[in-house]
């Protein structure tokens, strides 16, 4: 099968996000200039550079109470900071609950019953139970083609890791089993790993 996206695919559901999988989930916490808290997951998310460490996520829809975007991007525009909370398998239901198109005054921490913890380098809350949190300062917001597509880039200025996720000095994903997004309504979880040496490495 071949199709041009501009012509449509003719299938019951869009296959695009089922092809680009699995995708890590950036569970983004922000605080508005008015002090309101927000927590929402984004599966267009990844690390993009080592030095300095940088991440990005993309928001691709709008809410009626935010005009051209969603709460996360709106808050980041106001404050210039955000926190990425890593999603473990154990937190899957809370993550899913926080994905709703809730009113901008809704605090998803309270909605899901998640404990907040303060960030160290930015004015923002983080998910206390997350295996890791990345405190980020905004570097740029890029408007992509499409009415509501914004890519948000941030420099990681603080890193939290749960002590029990460190095994012999390695941050071991098998201690918490990260959740990843597949296509449609599907997710997957990391329960095994293997290593490959690059050419020339011993």
Automatic annotation (TrEMBL):
Domain Flavin reductase like: 18-173
Gene3D superfamilies found in the cross-reference section: Electron Transport, Fmn-binding Protein, Chain A
UniProt GO MF annotations: FMN binding; oxidoreductase activity, acting on the CH-NH group of donors, NAD or NADP as acceptor
Signal peptide: none
Alphabetized InterPro entries for the sequence: Flavin_Rdtase-like_dom, Split_barrel_FMN-bd
Protein name: Flavin reductase family protein
Organism expressing this protein natively: Thalassococcus profundi
């Amino acid at each position: 099968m071949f199709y041009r996206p501009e012509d449509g695919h003719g299938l019951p559901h869009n296959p695009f996000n089922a092809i680009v999988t699995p995708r890590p989930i950036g569970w983004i916490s922000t605080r508005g200039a008015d002090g309101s808290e927000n927590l929402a997951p984004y599966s267009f998310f990844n690390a993009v550079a080592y030095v300095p460490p940088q991440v990005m996520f993309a928001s691709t829809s709008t809410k009626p109470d935010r005009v051209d975007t969603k709460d996360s991007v709106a808050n980041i525009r106001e404050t210039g900071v955000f926190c990425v909370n890593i999603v473990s398998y154990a937190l899957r239901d809370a993550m899913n609950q926080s994905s709703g198109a809730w009113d901008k005054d809704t605090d998803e921490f309270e909605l899901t019953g998640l404990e907040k913890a303060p960030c160290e380098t930015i004015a923002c809350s983080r998910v206390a139970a997350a295996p890791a949190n990345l405190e980020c300062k905004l570097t740029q917001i890029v408007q992509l083609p499409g009415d509501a597509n914004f890519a948000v880039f941030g420099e990681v200025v603080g890193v939290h890791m749960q002590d029990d996720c460190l095994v012999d000095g390695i941050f071991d994903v098998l201690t918490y089993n990260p959740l990843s997004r597949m296509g449609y309504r599907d997710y997957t979880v990391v329960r095994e790993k293997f290593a490959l040496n690059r050419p020339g490495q011993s």
